[in-house]
Every structure is written in structure tokens, then in C-alpha cells.
Amino acid sequence: MPLQQGIQLIVTVAQTGVGYHCYTFDGLALPHPVLIQFEHVGSASASRDMDQLAAALLAELQGSICANRLPAPCGGLATICHALREADCQKLLVLVGDDFTAAVPSTLAKDWFQTSGNFQVLPVLPDTARPRAPMLLSGPLSAINVAFWSQGIEEALPAVFQVAGITAAQPRIFISYRQTDVAAAAIQLFDVLSHDGFDVFLDHFRVPPGVNFQQRLRQELGDKAMVLVLESPNLASSRWVAFEIAEARASGLGLAALNFSGAPLMAGIDPSLRLFLNAADIAAGGEIENAALGRVRAFVRSQHDRALLRRRILLEQSFEQAVVQAGGRLPQRFANGSFRIVAPTKSYHAWLTPRPPELPDYHRAYGATLPGTEAVIIGLSNLMEVSRQRQHEWLAGLCNMTLIDEGMMARAVGDMVRGTL
């Protein structure tokens, strides 16, 4: 069930003595509606940090993510949000703390500690509070992993998006580089980002012997949300990097760059998606100095999340446009992110994925496809290696679903509108 007035995202920010300020959005291709509620533990510093984190989230939504701000049904100020009662809504409480103030679970809404109803809690603490975290977070909070920040509380923003289900549970990135130029930095980034929870592709580690190198690169690119290009002096002479960038563009993946010491800029990468590293940022052995590495990690995480959201939004918009161009009515969109196309003789229930389909996509579609409709999954299946394509074709057949490559979406949508798919 969708939220009131077609709202996809609600952000509520606690206000002392007056309930919550409410901000509502659509224009996000989310698999389900989301409520993000900001609270703090009661101290002045935690209140300031909470306001700063909420402001950063709102700025990101209305800036790089380009969400559409809507009038709030409550008028923008409420004591309790109606989304708390919606079973299909993913609900996240962001609890901001400080170094010394203990969070008292009894002062929080009991709903946030239910085991059902899509309730989750994310404690956010400064890194200086790490040694005291077990004392500051007691009771049900003690079992929840904390998002720590060191330089600024905005560092917790990717964790907020991730736990809310707005971005992927596991971020995925492809590192494109020239080994003879920046191998040490590439291996360092592989290690650091892997420890940060990323699934990182680096050909130095991830292509086993006996595998068709080009086919594996295409498959790995399709599985990722973003390509991180390490711009080095001789990068333009690498045919593999040129191939990777071309495939990324063709598949609508995010492209961002780290520029090493004034190296030539690769064409086609937005200047705002480039982070410059100067000579002082690079150690004698070629690795990135620790002081600069923090900037790189924050840059990569924020650009990854933006890229995945932009890709999901573009895929949804392209699907809707294809339906209209084929002569159909704008498809019905469900709270779980799927679409229904009603043709003269049959109906279709379509599921979109910004990456090649995976087992959870089949499981979700199999359990939630409307009775009497034919299930269709659309994703980047053409980038899979042949053996993997056959496995997915078998799985789609077993689940009585039709698997469509994203590149064939317009033709498939036309067939659905006519009822001939």
C-alpha cells in the first residue's frame, strides 16, 4: 500500500516540545516507501549533530539525487507520522548520540524495537565515544551496530541511506586503472574499500586463470553501480581502460575519477565527479597518504550511492516512457517498486533491477507477483557470461517468469502493452 498522496520518502526531525518537522518526497525509484525519523539522546551537542545530519540528508535528496519535494499531508509538523502504521513502509530511526549521554530505550517509541513491521534503528556516535559505546547504548540498543563518525557527522549519511534501503545493502565498485602507473594505490583502495563493506572488482585479484578476460570484465561491470577511474599519466594508452569506460557509459553506470598529481583528464567524466590528489597526497611507494585516504573514502561512498540512485531512477523513468510510447496507459506502480501493465488479453507484473538479476530478485518477485498476471524481470542480463545466463534462464523458467535484458526493454514493453509477450 503506498503512502498518502503517492509519497515515497518521509523524513521527520525531532523538535523539542513540538513533535517533528516533516519533509516528504517522490521522484525516487525506491523498492518500497521509506520513513526516516531523526532523534537524539537529549544533550545539546547531540541535538546540534542531529540537525546537521538531517540537513545533510535533505540537501543530498534535493541536490545530487534530485528528489521532488512534496507538500506534507500533516502540514510539515506532526506528533506522530502516519507511515508508522503502514506495513509496506521501511521505517528507520536514526538515533544521534554524543560522548557521554546514555540513550535510554524506555524514552523511545516501543515500535522501533519490534521484530516485525520493517522497523530498524541506527545509532550514530562520534568515534571518540567508541570505547564507551557499550555503556551509552544499553538494552535493545546494545545489539545494534553503530555508525561512527570522526571528521563530521555527515560521514554517517551513507549508512543512513543504506540501512533505510534507499541504496544497496552491499555497495559495489569497479576500479579501472593502469597497473604500470598506480598499482600500489589500486591495491590499497581494494583493501580499504573491502574493509568498508564494498564488493570491489580489481583485476589484480578477481579474474582467475582460464576465464575469458573481456567477458568477465563485462559481467563485473554489470554487477557494479559505479566505475572508479584512477587517472594517471599513461591511462589513455590502456585499451582495457578504454573498454571499461565505454561499457560503463553504454550500461548507464556511474563514472567517477581520482586524479593523481595532475594527470590528463579522461573525457566523459563530469568534473564534479572527480577528486584531485596532489603530489603531497601520494607516499613514496605509490600509496595514498592516510590524511588524503579519508577524503577518498568519503568521496567514493557518496558518489557510489548517488550513482545507484540515479541509475534506478533512470531505469524506472525509461520503463514508464516505453509503456506510453507503445500506446499503453501509465503503468500502476506498487509500494514494493514493481509495475503492472494491463493489456487487452492479459496483465503483466514487471520487476526492475538496476543490476543483473540475482536470487533475491527472483524470490521477491515470485512471492509478490499478483495472481493472474505474468511475472517479468528486467535487468542487465546481456552482460553475464554465457554460463551465468543459462543459470538465470533456468531459474526464470523454474519460477515461471520471463527474463528481459534492459537493452531489449522497449521492445518487450511494446509486446506487453499488446499482450503478446
UniProtKB/TrEMBL annotation:
Ranges of residues in domain TIR: 169-304
GO BP annotations listed: signal transduction
InterPro entries found in the cross-reference section: TIR_dom (IPR000157), Toll_tir_struct_dom_sf (IPR035897)
Residues spanning the membrane: none
Classification via Gene3D superfamilies: Toll/interleukin-1 receptor homology (TIR) domain
Pfam families: TIR_2 (PF13676)
Entry protein name: TIR domain-containing protein
Organism, as annotated: Rhodobacter viridis
